[in-house]
């Protein structure tokens, strides 16, 4: 009888996103759990993808990404952030932002290296750190606004710290980092060799006339950082799985070594379609207003409920606290909300390594008004 090897990630099962979406489907619930729109991407983008497929662009793309797309990313980055990375040596197109995150972490984290992780955090960071033999060092964001306590970060730094992972706008909380936050971080690591991985996939979803401040705007951080973004979020094409990483040439070279053995390249016609569509600057420039309207509509529906909330500053997620409703653990309440009320959300404890339960659920408002209204009516009855 075969003896199978022990798991490298023995405590990791199906992601909470798969679990809650599966439960939502089984219960015929409104799915505000997994972060994807229930509306389509721009028709012009679909037509461009079909055009390139019909024209025969169906073979491998260059490992680093189609030159046309890397050129467009460089131009856009320069316009938005005042820094134009070299498309040949500083930009890599990846099969989704999650792949870019994986490639960046595996490129620089070696056994015994420490990686500072701000919790709650996106669930792919820690498993990759552990697969590299790295040691995640956790710092909790401060309630109720989920701000960074930089004094706590400073206390957790050591001679073994290799990387700090930040995420702005932040999934799951919707919090954003400011220029002041970036200055503090830069000062903390200025005299060290610590690197930064900045997850900025929701860069175009910042609300209330605030602005996204990118690591790429900060010279002291830019020279030591990977910055990851996502076309799936920007163009409502999460199923296309196209993201990219910007980093200094030496870091990009190491990231590409990982990327070439993870996926090697990303779908050619989709890259070309996006490269053409990036000329439509109005789409991403108008995205903050587009999603703020959805946020405002959703929280208007929540006003009639017993949930408590602070309007999200960014992303397409809204946290809601339910301690006035029940003392249940958030996972149990999320399950019951799905099966009994017919609305699926993500329990925020899933974003903590020790399943810390602060009685919050995460709702995705990247949905049609019809969907959000129906969800609000159900939530108001809880």
TrEMBL record:
Q: Which family does it belong to?
A: Belongs to the class-I pyridoxal-phosphate-dependent aminotransferase family.
User: Which cofactors does this gene product need?
Assistant: pyridoxal 5'-phosphate
What are the record keywords, sorted?
Answer: Aminotransferase, Pyridoxal phosphate, Transferase
Q: Source taxonomy lineage?
A: Bacteria, Pseudomonadati, Bacteroidota, Cytophagia, Cytophagales
GO MF annotation, one: kynurenine-oxoglutarate transaminase activity
Per UniProt, residues of the Aminotransferase class I/classII large domain are 29-379
What protein name is recorded for this chain?
Answer: Aminotransferase class I/II-fold pyridoxal phosphate-dependent enzyme
A single GO CC term for this protein reads: cytoplasm
Where are the annotated coiled coils located? none
């Amino acid at each position: 009888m075969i003896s199978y090897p022990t798991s490298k990630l023995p405590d990791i099962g199906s992601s909470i996103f798969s679990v809650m979406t599966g439960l939502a489907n089984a219960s015929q619930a409104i799915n505000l759990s997994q972060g994807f729109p229930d509306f389509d991407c721009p028709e012009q983008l679909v037509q461009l993808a079909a055009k390139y497929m019909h024209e025969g662009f169906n073979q491998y793309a260059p490992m680093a990404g189609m030159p046309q797309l890397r050129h467009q990313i460089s131009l856009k980055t320069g316009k938005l952030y005042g820094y134009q990375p070299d498309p040949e040596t500083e930009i890599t197109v990846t099969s989704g932002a999650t792949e870019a995150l994986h490639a960046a972490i595996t490129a620089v984290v070696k056994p015994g290296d420490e990686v500072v992780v701000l919790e709650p955090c996106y669930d792919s960071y820690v498993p990759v750190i552990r697969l590299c033999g790295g040691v995640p060092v956790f710092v909790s964001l401060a309630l109720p606004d989920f701000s960074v306590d930089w004094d706590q970060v400073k206390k957790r730094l050591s001679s073994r710290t290799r990387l700090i992972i930040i995420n702005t706008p932040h999934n799951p909380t919707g919090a954003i980092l400011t220029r002041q936050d970036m200055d503090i971080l830069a000062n903390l690591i200025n005299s060290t060799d610590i690197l930064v991985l900045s997850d900025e996939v929701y860069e175009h979803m910042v609300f209330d006339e605030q602005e996204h401040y990118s690591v790429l705007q900060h010279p002291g951080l830019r020279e030591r950082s990977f910055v990851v973004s996502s076309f799936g979020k920007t163009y409502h094409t999460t199923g296309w799985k196209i993201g990219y990483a910007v980093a200094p040439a030496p870091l990009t070279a190491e990231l590409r070594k990982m990327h070439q053995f993870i996926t090697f390249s990303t779908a050619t016609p989709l890259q070309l379609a996006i490269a053409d569509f990036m000329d439509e600057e109005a789409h991403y420039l108008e995205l903050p207003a587009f999603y703020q309207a959805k946020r405002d509509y959703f929280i208007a529906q929540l006003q009639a409920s017993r949930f408590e909330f602070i309007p999200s500053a960014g992303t397409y997620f809204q946290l809601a606290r339910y301690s006035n409703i029940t003392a249940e653990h958030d996972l149990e309440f999320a399950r019951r909300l799905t099966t009994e009320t017919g609305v699926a959300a993500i329990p925020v404890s899933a974003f903590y390594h020790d399943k810390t339960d602060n009685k919050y659920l995460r709702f995705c408002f990247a949905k049609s008004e019809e969907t959000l209204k129906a969800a609000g009516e159900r939530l108001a009855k809880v």
